Amino acid sequence: MAPVPAIQHSLEDLVNNFTPGGCYGIEWELDGDTLKHKNDYSPQWWIEGVKTKGLKGLYTTESAKHEFPVGQGFVGRVFKNQEVLFVDDLQKLDTEGMKDSMQFGHGMEFMRAGLAKEFNIQSAIFLPQPNCVLEIGSAAKVDSMPGYYAAYTSPTTPALANGASVGAEPDVASKAEPPQLLRSLVSDLTLTSCYGIEWAWNGELLKYRSHFNPQWRVEGVLKQGLKGLYTSESRGLSFAKGDGLVGEAFDKQAVIFARDLQSLRQDDIITSMQTGVTVPFLRRDIAENFGIHSAVFLPMPEGVLEVGSVEMMGSFEEFLSEKSRAAIAGKTQAADILSALTALAE
To answer: Which of 31, 52, 215, 297 has its CA 20 to 30 A from that of 59?
Structure first.
């Protein structure tokens, strides 16, 4: 078994590069035959959000009360096997964890799953080293290991969720054919747009359906060495009616212009942490990672079209091309704006 390469990054760097939503890191150090908490890190935005929600402590400080014998629990098994482990949902018990809890009677996996639910922790990666394990987690539920950690995997690293491959090239193609209006909005109905996402309403949530990226944007992201795209990183998120900019546009059936997706409104922060909905935080992280600033959210009866740019625009009108501005002149209702832009796209 090839050893995992020595980790050169700080705990803070490892957390901040868990995209989207990296919100904690814990260093578990070997002491005899047990792994114990040595150090932890949580970004300030997460600490403030947990306080706003009224929770006592943090996932890291509560986890520090636990210890893991070598071979037991995610932490102990990762250390024993010296294999990187990616877990897509910490709130669910895996088979081995249940066996450990029942055999040894310590209930560690049950308690940690409960903590994950309490603090809304979802996915995590466990990185072994000769004398410790680094645990890095996210408030987002992602279905594959972020490419940032590819250097620490080996040919025997267990398969990732959904068969995803570590460090894969950006997911350019949309599984569903994006609507012509979305393509046109990105290509010629707006200025400097670099992506488009179609969010579809399924009766309960707004979920990703398709996306579109112009070729120049894909090539630019590749040159920057980024893994994935803003569209593919957003794909695992969903929005309840009224939640986030996507949910707000759909709920109000109103066009929403966001000057800078990398900034959070105070209302968003308070509402997100009180309700446990962390999507605004996660989207801010993704926007920062891919340099996205302004965006427009165009509601439809069955969903929302989102189009964004790496530039910071001053208004919705400034975002549009000259022919688009002319087509919607005097129109204030989202349905009328949608109709005018659809006619241009045909």
So the answer is: 31
Which amino acid is located at 346 in the chain? E
Spatial distance between the Cα atoms of 278 and 196, rounded to a whole number of angstroms = 22
Segment 159-215, tens digit of pLDDT: 433 333 333 444 555 668 899 999 999 999 998 899 999 999 999 999 999 999 888
Residues 302, 201: contact at Cβ < 8 Å? yes
pLDDT above 90 coverage of the chain, percent: 36
Instruction: Tell me the pLDDT tens digit for each residue of 143-170.
Output: 677 778 877 776 555 443 333 333 344 4
CA distance 338 to 346: 12
Residue 92 tokens read as 């669910």
List the domains of the chain with CATH numbers. 11-163 (3.30.450.40), 180-345 (3.30.450)
Distance CA 169, CA 223 (A): 12
Sheet strand arrangement including 22-31: 67-69, 34-41, 22-31, 132-138, 124-129, 85-87
